[in-house]
Structure formats: C-alpha cells, structure tokens
Amino acid sequence: MSEQTATRRGMALDELIERSAHGKFELIDGELHAMSPSTLAHSILIRKLLFALSAVAAERWEVFSETTFITPEQAASNWLTDSLVPDILIFDKAAFDALRADTALVATRPAALIPALVAETLSPADRQSDVSRKVQRYLALGVRLIWIIDPQVQQVTVYRHGSKQASLLSAADTLTADDLLPAFALPLEQFFAL
To answer: What is the 3-state secondary structure (H, E, C) of the chain?
Structure first.
C-alpha cells in the first residue's frame, strides 16, 4: 500500500512578509494570485469611496484602502491560507484599537482582523471566476457586506453574509451600507462620474 502525502496549501506568515517585498499578491484559499497595477480611473473610484465612507464612519469604524488582512486564527498558527487585500475595507473600531495596542505586531504583520465591509473595484483584466472565488472567501471568513464595483458597466453587486442572493445596483441607484453605516448613501451616478 502506498502512502500518500497531503499537500498543505498556503504559506507561513514569515514567508508571506518576505515575498511581499517582491511584488503585490493575495493568498486566496491557499493559492497565490498576482495583483495587477491600478489604473488612474480605478484609483479615483477607490479614493471617492474612501472619502465617502470616512465621512460617516469615524465613531464606530476604521476605514482603509488596499490593506492586507488575515484571520486571527491563521495569524496565531503562523500558517496562512488567506491574505487578502481589498480596495476598501472597514474594521470595527474597538477591535481595531485592541489590535493596534500591540505595537510590535502592528509594525511587522498584516491586520489579523476580519473586516465588516470590503469593496473591490474591477479592472478589465479581472476574470469572473476569480472575482466569484474571492467573494466566496470573504463570505466564508465572515465579512458582512461586500461591494463588487464594475466601472465599465457602472454597476455594483452587493453581497451580504447569510444571504444567498446578491443585489445588483445600477448608476441610477444609491449605494448604502445597511445597518453597518446607516448614514451612508452614495448616489452611484455621481460616484461613477470621473
């Protein structure tokens, strides 16, 4: 009888940090995915969304752009299967402040915290299968609200943790953040206007 060796997917946290010096990538469900450079239009949309969220989030949330996060469990085990870098993410302020209190970790490690909301702006090179896989990982990790922004067709697909059906918003709609940020309302026509 032959012995089969199981391949362990993912990488050590130290390896992730070392590799990040050689280019941007994400680790999604144990597989490396190179990140392509942003276009100016992509960056403009991210900036607009960052400012809009920051304007209403200060008391309860911390808003970031292109910040790497890992799960607290994976950080503790030093073995990662997911290291994700959404365009926009928000963390619970109290949980983030607790994490930030450990200044040694803040200076040397990605955020070991699951965001409540993530937003991804698609580029023409993004494949639908890769986007779907990433959305499924976010949901599996416990992200409560996911916005997939498609500037080419001026639509936002909204995924909610615990819901089997996504919502599709057009430029005529207003993007909201449900109970996470009740004061947030962004008219998409205005948002998509570069």
So the answer is: CCCCCCCCCCEEHHHHHHHHCCCCEEEECCEEEECCCCCHHHHHHHHHHHHHHHHHHCCCEEEEECCCEECHHHHHHCEECCEECCCEEEEEHHHHHHHHCCHHHHHHCCEECCCCEEEEECCCCCCHHHHHHHHHHHHHHCCCEEEEEECCCCEEEEEECCCCCCEEEECCCEEEECCCEEEEEEEHHHHHCC
